[in-house]
Amino acid sequence: MQSQNNNVIVLEGLSKVYSGNTHALRDVALHVGAGEIFGLLGPNGAGKSTLVKVLLTVVKPTVARGTMLGQPIGDKKTLAQVGYLPEQHRLAPYLTARQAVEFVAALSGVDRSTRKKRAAELLDRVGLANWMDRRVNVFSKGMRQRAGLAAALVNNPKIVFLDEPTDGVDPVGRVEIRDLLIQMRREGRTVFLNSHLLGEAEQVCDRVAILVQGRVVKQGRMVDLQQEGSRQELTVRWTGAALTGNVRALPFRGMQIAPTVNPDGAHQYVFSDLDSSAAQPAIDAARAAGGDIISLLPIHQRLEELFMKIVVDPTTGKAPPPGAGS
Amino acid sequence: MTAFVAILVDGYRELVAKKLFTLSMVLSLLVVAVIGIGGLNEQGVTIFGFTIEVPFINSTMFTPAEFYKLMFNSVGVTFWLGWLACLLALVSSAGMFPEMVSSGVVENMLSRPTERWRLYMYKFTAGLLFTAAQMGVFCLASFLVIGLRGGAWEPGLFLAIPLVTLLYSYLFAMSALLGTITRSAIAALLLTILFWGFLFTVNSAENLVNGFRIARVKECQAIESLMQKRQKENPQADISDLHSELEREQATLGNLQFWHRVVFVLKTALPKTDETTSLLQRWTVQASNMQDESGDDAEEVADNAPKQRRRGGPGFGNTRTKNSVVVAAIEADQRSRGVGWILGTSAVFEIMTLGLGCWLFSRRDF
């Protein structure tokens, strides 16, 4: 866990109530460490985009207790150090990619020579070197997304907010964007990633928070969350005749997988879904029963599993309806 | 400052990308060309060597310089700058604010260090570039035409740039507000045109009621004068008919004064597009030392000896006063309304409209 001093975003209580008593965000509390990739996950309508918009002053909060880069939420000057790629963003169709990126830089107060230099560099970095002087209205969705990424980085931000950055991007482009996120982390930037794509988030995020109906229901380091529900998989090999009886007598609480018979006649069993406390007794028991331990592998909980456990109602088997409700 | 310049440049690029901007520029130059290709001879107006006989417009009545300045005022200012150019500018710029507040664009604007009200005002200023640029081109071309063809170099013509930009700004402030509220270019445009029509209606109503009011004042004065004259000639003369006529006129005047006050208060609160254009005509006429045709009427009123020439204006139910005297009195009344009232009250309305737009833009969630 990072110390509070290293956090670039600290939310102690952030709420947004729209007219009609619709609660979009309910007392959200989370923190984002400097230089990490933070993933904000949640089903549609959970309030992910609203949370980002509140942090970036696009939406006015009802209550906002917290800081970003050491300043209160809503402080305009802080935004000069922040980049943003909105969900389904649109660059002005009458501008070239270079002009569009430079325009965003100018809005952030970047001086003329710096923005010209950085716009060219970043468009090259996102693979639009040969397109930077073409109008964005001829761009594909993926190309616009790349140009948007360049725009989000043009003011050399300390924090970059990316709302569904891979939306509409082809698989190759997705890998490139993932690499770009990792590169941003290497450069010391903090990346705040909103995404539906759990697999991608799992690959790049250091920490995640799961938002459901405007509430943070889970947050933590990715490693911790994966270990929290992790299981072990034990593979044991027996030779000889009276194997079945021995195996059945084992005090394994894990699921037994049908044995495979090796060419040398040995039987191999794989016991999966063992929790950490059951692993050592299982090894001891297997050895006592004459088995050879082939492997003991940790099986981490996938983010998708965790997400589904949290989001899906176990009684109905359904995800909550979109929106935070009233 | 960087953001301000960026939004100005972006506004310029946006307008240039729209064909209507170029079209307006071309049309502006065409209007000047139409003014420039005309000429005068003793019979009338010449175009490409052909003469169109016009009794009151020929070289015996006007010098070439006066002719081109007259054309600049009547065609260029009244029709082109005052109406058509403003309408084209509104059409071209109606989408600026709805586009700025549209989803996917507004986030990029608002998530920057610039305050929202500043963004709103920067965008508004960028929109005014359209008219200012168009006026600049039009005035420069007119200046050259009047100078080269008429032999008179009149820098006063450039007053049209700030004045027409101001006139357009009344309407564009409303268009910006409506565009921010409705987020629709078409709705903003139609409602702004409707608002312009409302201004025109209020202005016409005020002119009409004021015309009848002044006519009644003149009628009362004429009746009183006639009563005095009759009594002077014959103290025993029966003037009861004049008394009852005077009472009727005074009663009507009372009604008209009440309704004029109502319409006048309403008009005071609204931007005065018509008066601003008239101001432009008045100033460009003064600035270019061109003879002001209404000067004769001023004398008529001052001397109380109206000439026989009728101005051709509408009658206001006046039977005892010449139309020309009534029209001259109306014009004198209109001219008595100072620049401060015309521009000041219009500016107050515009500031309030802009303030409301900034406030809505600042407090709204996007």
Question: Helix and strand layout, with pairings?
Answer:
The complex is a heterodimer of chains A (326) and B (366).
Chain A: E1 7-18, E2 22-33, E3 37-41, H1 48-55, E4 63-68, E5 71-72, E6 82-85, H2 97-107, H3 112-125, H4 141-153, E7 159-163, H5 171-186, E8 190-194, H6 198-204, E9 207-212, E10 215-221, H7 222-228, E11 231-238, H8 243-249, E12 255-261, E13 267-274, H9 276-288, E14 292-299, H10 303-311
Parallel strand pairs in A: 3-8, 3-9, 6-7, 7-8
Antiparallel strand pairs in A: 1-2, 1-4, 4-5, 9-10, 11-13, 11-14, 12-13
Helix pairs in contact in A: 2-3, 2-4, 3-4
Chain B: H1 2-17, H2 19-37, E1 38-40, E2 44-47, E3 50-53, H3 64-93, H4 96-100, H5 106-110, H6 116-150, H7 160-182, H8 185-233, H9 240-269, H10 273-287, H11 295-303, H12 323-336, H13 339-363
Helix pairs in contact in B: 1-6, 2-3, 2-6, 3-6, 3-7, 3-10, 6-7, 6-13, 7-8, 7-10, 7-13, 8-9, 8-12, 10-13, 11-12
Compact summary:
The complex is a heterodimer of chains A (326) and B (366). Chain A is elongated and about 80 Å long. Chain A is built from ten helices and 14 strands.
Rg calculated over all Cα atoms of chain A: 25 Å
CATH superfamily of the largest domain in chain A: P-loop containing nucleotide triphosphate hydrolases
The tally of strands of chain A reads 14
Q: What is the helix/strand order of chain B?
A: HHEEEHHHHHHHHHHH
In DSSP terms, counting alpha (H) and pi (I) runs of 4 or more, how many helices of chain B?
Answer: 13
Helix fraction bin of chain B: over 70%
Low-confidence stretches of chain B: 290-313
Sheet with most strands of chain A:
6 strands, mixed
Kindly report the average pLDDT value of chain A: 85
How many DSSP-defined strands of chain B? 3
Description:
The complex is a heterodimer of chains A (326) and B (366). Chain A is of the alpha/beta class and 326 residues long. Chain A folds into 2 domains: 4-227, Rossmann fold; 231-299, Alpha-Beta Plaits (2-Layer Sandwich). Chain A is built from 10 helices and 14 strands. Chain A has helices spanning 48-55, 97-107, 112-125, 141-153, 171-186, 198-204, 222-228, 243-249, 276-288, 303-311, and strands at residues 7-18, 22-33, 37-41, 63-68, 71-72, 82-85, 159-163, 190-194, 207-212, 215-221, 231-238, 255-261, 267-274, 292-299. In chain A, the strands form 3 sheets. Chain A has a 6-stranded mixed beta sheet, sandwiched between helices. Chain A has a 4-stranded antiparallel beta sheet with strand order 2-1-4-5, covered by helices on one side. A 4-stranded antiparallel beta sheet of chain A has the order 12-13-11-14, covered by helices on one side. In chain A, α2 crosses α3 and α3 (112-125) packs across α4. Chain A starts with 6 loop residues before the first strand and ends in a 15-residue tail after the last helix. Chain B has 366 residues and is mainly alpha-helical. Chain B folds into 2 domains: 2-197, no CATH class; 202-340, no CATH class. Chain B has 13 helices and 3 strands. Chain B has helices at residues 2-17, 19-37, 64-93, 96-100, 106-110, 116-150, 160-182, 185-233, 240-269, 273-287, 295-303, 323-336, 339-363, and strands spanning 38-40, 44-47, 50-53. In chain B, strands 1-2-3 form a 3-stranded antiparallel beta sheet. Classes of the chains: A alpha/beta (326), B mainly alpha (366). At the A-B interface, α2 of A face α1 and α5 of B.
